Structures
1.
Amino acid sequence: MTAPTRKQMHLAAHFPGVNNTTVWTDPRSKSQIEFSSFEHLARTAERGRFDFFFLAEGLRLREHKGRIHDLDVVGRPESLTVLSALAAVTDRLGLAATVNATFNEPYELARRLATLDHLSDGRAAWNVVTSSDAFTGENFRRGGYLDRADLPRALGSARTRGTPYTRAAEFVATARELWDTWTPDGTPRPFRHQGQHFTIEGEFTVPRSPQGHPVVIQAGDSPAGREFAASAADVIFTRHGTLEAGRTFYTDVKARLAKYGRQPEDLKIMPGVTFVLGDSDAEAQESAAEIRRQQISPQNAILALEQVWGRDLSSYDPDGPLPEIDPDPDSGLVQGRVRIGHQLAVAARWRALSEAKGLSIRQTVIETTGRQSFIGRPETVASELIEFVSTDAADGFILVPHLTPGGLDEFVDRVVPLLQERGAFRSEYTGLTLRSHLGLADPVGKD
Amino acid sequence: MSATNGLHLAAEIGGPPHYDARHYVELARLAERGALDFVTLGDSFARPGPDALAVLSRVAPATRRIGLVPTVTTTHTEPFHVSSAVATLDWVSRGRAGWSADVSTTEAEARLFGRRSAAPAAELWREAGETADVAARLWDSWEDDAEIRDVATGRFIDRDKLHYVDFEGATFTVRGPAIVPRPPQGHPVTVIDGTGGPSQEAAARHADVVLVRATAPEQAAGIRADVRRRAAAYGRDPDTLRVLVALTVDLGDAETAPEPGLESGPPLAAGGSYYRGGPVDLAELIARWHRAGAVDGFHLTPITPERDLERIVNGTVALLQHRSLFRTFYPGGTLREHLGLARPANRYALAEART
């Protein structure tokens, strides 16, 4: 049954790594670093007619208790370089790199992104993230003056919230100015940008790229992040994996667009989601539970507990009860990863759950973290994905497989054909560029 | 005069800027057909052209053996990013990466970034040397066997095999370790143009391949001996260096040029020595200089890459191969293997082994 008028879904593939989503203990789990792994996942995504392939970024290895965290996947190659290489082994797939706006400079990054857009014939995307983190800054020149130049502005005003987005917003605007400096007929014009964060001038060395502006993705759910996305992004990468939360977020973000003179369809909302498939719904649920056990090893359970408690709990038995001592939220035990907010509240919730259900430490952590978004036989998962999109809880999904690099194979072989049969997802690419896949208008160049 | 071993040949594939990948893929494949050690792609923030490292990353999966050496400038970039990108080029090319370190001396380039003013070349080359130093430390910051995937203990890595570099230079500090695991070659190949002037010390201290300029074999031999002496003064084994003469070549009127041969020409592109003549005479020149022990090889910059590279490969290289002076196939897979350079030991693993 084809329903050609059905709202079309957008799909992207996240290369999994540097987290405990990736089940590296599985014998099918291969290299997180070798190019062959990236090639496999990208080719699979393109075979499934996905919109784009997505790479995350890390600029400092995570630490736990002052030492490098050693339980999860660690290390990854640099995104834009990997994507430039992937442009050689794919034809249509969008290529999205997460690149920090705090520890880069607009001229250099705009040039690298425009180059990728040329080399891929119009498939480049940039996921803009920020950091106000002096821990990460220790690897950078910029780290040296982050405190001096940026933090004073942030102090007294909701901590650092405004500052990274202020810099990021000016960064994106500056990149767009640079991408617009070449006229459509190929004449470079000098640019001059004078702002709060950047005062630069000269000539941009790369002519207007096939997409005009590479696609801009923004990740982050805070009000400042939503506002930034509404003003400047083409895609927002969210975490809302339930229908209700998704609809609320969708309505909120789409409503913010009008004040920037933008239409609802100018910004695509794509939550990052996980999935587990099986021949029956029950079998998929069973696999999902097993995957959660693999993701939360005994050691990872203690680590998760220490993150909430802010204390060294290495003497505790992961199969035993939760600690009776209270958390220490100010300990600074954990570095280089997103902190779980409201540690005291989380601890209270975990205790209540553990007591109510008689759960051990590891069981409690498994219950409270890392639950998969879509679980079931292919028909079940396809129906749920379609429901999300058709009821405006999302415009599409960034799928995060739990295996590298084969974790997307089954989805592409078994779910994508169902989405296509039901008219919810393309059977062939109709355009050449990522903007075309996403149904985004080309940015208007200045003449 | 110390003996040279096999002849090494490299070619620049940049010219008037192109932005489509196909142009560069074709030139790199042509050079690969000639079994050249590596191709270079020049870069600068100040003139039209795409990002060279991205271009050669795009070329990597479309080639199999040839070394890939983009110019990477160190003045306005973050040393940590430079180290990560070059290591990643080595991963995506499966051990064929190098980088040609350079500096940005002009006020125009400084204004593109707005972070610092233009500085004297000597100062910037000291910083470039520090960037090469910290890059190598970051490449070593993961020991080769750091990834253990030990299911019993739940540990993906052995963190005792990861190391903070705690580098303190004059203009930057880097804590480390790298994000990118140690690349296939251990250290991608560092190339520095080091004829006299401010880049000389950085070249002697940090480069695996030093490009020099000379108009006669005796002069080249003298420069090579000087580079090797300076390297030795830094505690390096001079045999871990390859000294290539940089030559701009014009093979345009091959058969009709009245006086084929080497000229001290006007500074073209990177400047320096200029050869105009036929591919056969170029082969004669290369063979003569190399046989005299004056150089380890040549880095050729064709003034018109599409035309001259074809003549270099099908004329000059074919003749050198016919005379058994140059390889006809790649016996190894990595750029270090082409150059006859060993994979460097990891300084941190060595330090542990000693204690």
Note: Chain B touches chain A through 66 residues (CB under 8 Å).
2.
Amino acid sequence: MVDKVLTANRLTDGIAVWLDAKGRWSTSLQEALVARHNEAVEALEAIGKKSYADNEVVDVAVVEVQDTNGSLWPLRLRERIRAQGPTMEYAPGYAPADPEFIAV
Amino acid sequence: MYRYDEFDHAFVSERVEQFRDQVQRRLSGELAEDAFKPLRLMNGVYLQLHAYMLRIAIPYGTLSARQLRMLARIARTYDRGYGHFTTRQNLQFNWPKLSDIPDALADLASVEMHALQTSGNCIRNVTADHFAGAAADEIADPRPYAEILRQWSSVHPEFSFLPRKFKIAVTGADRDRAAIQVHDIGLHLKKNDKGEIGFAVYVGGGQGRTPMIAKLIRDFLPEEDLLSYTTAIVRVYNLHGRRDNKYKARIKILVHETGAEELARQVEVEFAALKDSELKLPEKDVEAIASYFALPDLAERAEGWENLARWKKADPDFARWVQQNVQPHKNPDYGMVTISLKPIGGIPGDATDAQMDAIADLAEEYAFDEIRVSHEQNLILPHVALADLEAVYRGLVAINLAEANAGLITDIIACPGLDYCALANARSIPLAQEISRRFGNAERQAEIGELKIKISGCINACGHHHVGHIGLLGVEKKGAELYQITLGGSGDEHTSIGEIIGRGFEPDRVTDAIETIVDTYLGLRLDPSEIFLATYRRVGPQPFKAALYGATAEAA
């Protein structure tokens, strides 16, 4: 099975977040809890539904990742950009996404 | 400029407070997302890839300095210090917190702005020629009619839940700068033999997954019938537009399936019943609205001609900017200035808070307090004395917005793409930046001449790729970005939909492909006055296909 993590957007500010091992929503993909079998994915989905129902997050989704040299790396480009932000300089104080992380 | 009356003020302020209450109830958990989502969309609040997005309406693209300064303030206070001007004469903020949005809307209301109907299946922000009221070739100013349509369509009880979104554009010159033939309704102001004002009415244009050019269904609609005829069109659409399939719900599909003649007949039946109703526009009301859009009191500034000649001689960069970014005004002592939001390697349509503040200052000092937003993601100062052009130019140089590229190959339209948009399949902005850098040399741009590149990151075509002379559509193939190239599109009075030239290109090959297309054009054109689009229309796609894929290559 492909490894999976649970992601969403925080209700209050819409910022992309990932569920970590302590059951909290982190703004870093690298802190995400990885589900490596079906039961674990089901557990993630259940937590996602509860967090949504509890009005903590919106747009909850399970996304596919792989472990690359100790880093979590989403398989879809969309999710890699979500994890690191826009891929170009856009505002002072905010670095663009790492091109190597974004690369196919 | 139109000013809110008491009703407008009260209405917009009430909506802000209503939304503030809805947000508070959402944050407290009293309102669930399913119930809240349609409410936030009615106030222009989307949830995008990284955060919420607030889309603000700029009716017919007209702004005052005070309003632009407020947009800068909102960017600084509630966002990350910039805003993004879109192809629909809107402004989008990409990072507002939901909890801050009611305050941002209250700030907007204080300068007579709002975000209503910038989302949802309703009549969206009415757009118009960005040179309205100033252009030398204008028959009449389209903005009073756009304002009348705005008032009529705002929370219109019958048209707030249409089958899909509905877009209206108005132009007042023979040269169409509002792309009216790719709108649900396009209105072209004209005068009849008696000198009376009326409209040619186009219906059923649009881009997206099924691009279509609008059909002319009325050659001359009298001014007084504007609202009754428009109501008739939207009523027929509301009645017969498909609600079973959102991809077939736009009026362009209805026109295509019903036939323009039959649709026009149905519209005429509705119109006959409405023609003499309260929707008939009284002449005095049109005059009252039009008075808000009167040309400023332009003093004679004949000294500008001599000054301009001297300045151009002394500064080739300034001369190039005047040549490319200043267009003839109704008054020969004045010009219309395009402020390119496309610095070489920049993000098309983005402006920082400091740039917005500086442009507001320039507008106040040199341009009668008026700024326009173009559907090509640039800003316009519509009335600048030739005698003040040098000062305006210096002001723009200071904020890195004096690129002399209006209408040239680096004046690229690009949607936000996969860097921001939840719907996108591929990125648009980095591609625009790379093309801009490759062709950034001023002499080379001048040699190439007018060439419009438009980039969309998905089939919804927010970057207007279908009507780009060169269009780029980003798609996802096997998890990676791929770009389809279309050639020969145009969004002017001779609107055409671009043709797909062949199989798509990986991101790192697109700019080379553009270069091949440009080089092929330069080798084919009859002389430098023949622009890319004219050459393409004369020779067709084959030479470009051969250059891109080899003489025997088949289009994929």
Note: The longest helix of chain B spans residues 6-28.
